[in-house]
Amino acid sequence: MNTKFVNCELLSTNGNKAMTWVHPLSDGRLFTIAAMDKSHVHGNTLPHEQFLFGRISDDGGRSWGAPFHIYTWPEKRAAMLHAGSMIDSRGHLHVFALRIRKPLDGGIGYVRFDSCFGENPIYSEIPCLDRYTGSLNNCLETSNGRLVIPFSTINGQKDSKFVSSVIYSDDWGLTWSASNDIAVVSDEKDIESGAVEPIVIEVGKNTLLMIIRTVLGVFWYSVSHNNGETWTQAKPTKITASNAPGCFTRMPDGRIFFTWNNALGHPMQAVRYSFARQCLHGAVSDDNFKTLQGARILLKKTPCDTDKVLNCYPYTTMADDGDIFLRSFEVEGEGNSRWGQEQAYLIKLNPDFLTETQVTDNWQEWVSDVPVEEDGINLRVTTDNVAYAITSFPYGTSGKLIFKTEGSLPASCRILLSDCYLDRLNFMKNSRPSGYDESIHTLYHTLTPTESGTWEINWKNGMITLSVNGSETEGVPMAASEGLNHAAVLFYDKGELKITHFEAQIDGNRWDTGIELS
User: Residues 6 or more apart from 483 whose CB is under 8 A from it?
Assistant: First the structure.
């Protein structure tokens, strides 16, 4: 049962450049771009020409037709790496490229067409933001027709850090202007520190919200009150996240669907920040991101994946029936995907499950190296003598968990509770960098069951209590997080422990993001 896709349906899979962002068309079909571009890591040498192709799906994304030529980039001296696309309310197709002249030296390339079939191309470079950028993660057309495209850039100088900003157009892409830069200030020195890979959404009249990837364990945010022209100083949210971007989509009922890597821990850059992207999560907001509900696993690590698998870089859009299309890619997974040869997935999901307050025996949602069966998990040690299984459940600032277990309890058995996904890799002694043990324990709460049987965990008002077979055994303060949405069982000894039942009941599944829009 250890499937990669949880609470969702896999529609199709392909190489990352063969199936990029997916756009619904007015006739009910789907459109995506397939790109052929240069490898900028090899001096922008081959191929000499760089192309954009279109692909159409007539069956809701389950299969795709043959590519058809849309455009040949006129640029010969730079790599035109396809970054993203959008179709506006007038039917124009807008395509953005990372125009890389050499490492850390580049800008934005752009072409507009009358439709997704490539009529009347209008090509330009974006002079208002002619700096190196690494990625594009969403595009926005506001309610008054302004196009707002978020980027993070660096100036290419020594020790420069990323800043976030947007380009915006009021004439459907014929001309562009740039906003002010938004910085995230920290003492991190790595090239990826700063304000990286922003996403934007409209949350009120002329009011836009920007969510920013950081290396600081949470997203940061900025707000614009003039439709993207200027932005406030960035502040931290309360949304736990590794060093990875998210994406969001406004649903027809007004809610916002949000997806991101709600994960921390190993793999790390030294011991300072996390590149953990083993699982991709989803949540919804019905109050313009002041609170969220959910934080549940959608794509997960499987036993055949490498320990450092990445399920990341989501892009979302609406399906005609009110479901969500989610397109993401995988690196270092079961099929030997790697950077430059990523494996893309298109899935479909109904986000209503994210408002649940109770789950029972959600075995599909568990991540473990041992097979997860229909009736539970026979937990035993595997690589590096670690036995480990973890699941997600609706985020709650208070609630109750019930485990039922069978077998002789290993002496080292622990229950770990957190507000994010923590991979088994965190507890493999041979994988950790020096100094890591001193920091990892701050990410979770530890409980020690005294015997197998029924474990009941309650948390409320900043305290967690554990009862084993009806007797309370311990209480610990909630020092690592304000709420919980992941539970794991861990031991190092030989032996087996079967988890036969799991139940989560959440009293309040709405949690504060820390975002102030006014």
Answer: 395, 396, 397, 419, 511
> Two tokens at 508?
């309040």
Is 443 within 8 Å of 264 (Cβ atoms)?
yes
- Radius of gyration for the alpha carbons in the chain, expressed in angstroms and rounded: 23
Match 């968990």 to its residue by tokens. Answer: 401
Helix or strand (DSSP H, E) at 438: helix 437-440
Q: Is the pTM of this model over 0.85?
A: yes
Strand order in the sheet with 387-396: 367-368, 387-396, 484-491, 414-418, 445-447
Q: Which helix (H) or strand (E) holds 455?
A: strand 454-460
Helix (H, G, I), strand (E, B) or coil at 128: helix
Q: Are 23 and 318 in contact (CB under 8 A)?
A: no
Supply the DSSP symbol for 318.
Answer: E
What pairs with residue 5 in β-bridges?
299
Q: Are 284 and 253 in contact (CB under 8 A)?
A: no
Considering the domain 360-512 in this protein, what is its CATH number? 2.60.120
Element at 437 (helix H, strand E): helix 437-440
CA distance 76 to 49: 7
CA–CA distances in Å: residue 119 to residues 24, 71, 122, 164, 261: 18, 9, 9, 32, 38
What are the residues facing 2 on neighbouring strands?
none
The sign of the dihedral angle between the CA atoms of 267, 212, 236, 162 is positive
Nearest to 384 by CA among 441, 439, 420, 423: 423
Phi, psi of 369 (to 5 degrees): -80, -20
Amino acid identity at 249: T
Per-residue pLDDT of the chain (518 residues; tens, 9 = 90+): 678 999 999 999 999 999 999 999 999 999 999 999 876 554 555 557 899 999 999 999 999 999 999 999 998 888 899 999 999 999 999 999 999 888 888 899 999 999 999 999 999 999 999 999 989 999 999 999 999 999 999 976 667 889 999 999 999 999 999 999 999 988 877 777 899 999 999 999 999 999 999 999 999 999 999 999 999 999 999 999 999 999 999 999 999 999 999 999 998 887 778 999 999 999 999 999 999 999 999 999 999 898 889 999 999 999 977 899 999 999 998 878 898 889 999 999 999 999 999 999 999 999 999 988 889 999 999 988 999 999 999 999 999 999 999 999 999 999 999 999 999 999 988 777 777 777 788 999 999 999 999 999 999 999 999 999 999 888 999 999 999 999 999 999 788 999 999 999 999 889 999 999 98
Paired tokens of 485: 């949405």
**DSSP bridge pairs for 168:** 148, 177
The domain spans of the chain are 360-512
Dihedral of CA 224/229/233/234: which sign?
A: positive
